[in-house]
Amino acid sequence: MSSSDLKQAALRAISLMDLTSLNSDDHDQRIIALCQQAQTVAGN
User: Fold this and answer.
1) 43 by DSSP, 3-state: which?
2) What is the pLDDT of residue 10?
3) Which own/partner contact pairs does 15-20 have at CB distance under 8 Å and 24+ positions apart?
4) For residue 11, what are the CA distances in angstroms to 17, 34, 37, 42?
5) How many angstroms separate the CA atoms of 44 and 31, rounded?
6) Which UniProt keywords apply (predicted)?
7) CB of 35 closer than 8 Å to CB of 19
8) d(Cα 13, Cα 19) in Å, to the nearest integer?
């Protein structure tokens, strides 16, 4: 797999990750932290 193919596969995988939180005790800060975990050098 070429470097370009790996990058495309990584970008696709990141876009498919589920960051849904269904906890009954979630609050704004927990959701903000969850969103920050999704940020990468490739975007979010």
Assistant:
1) strand
2) 84
3) none
4) 10, 18, 15, 7
5) 15
6) Lyase
7) yes
8) 13
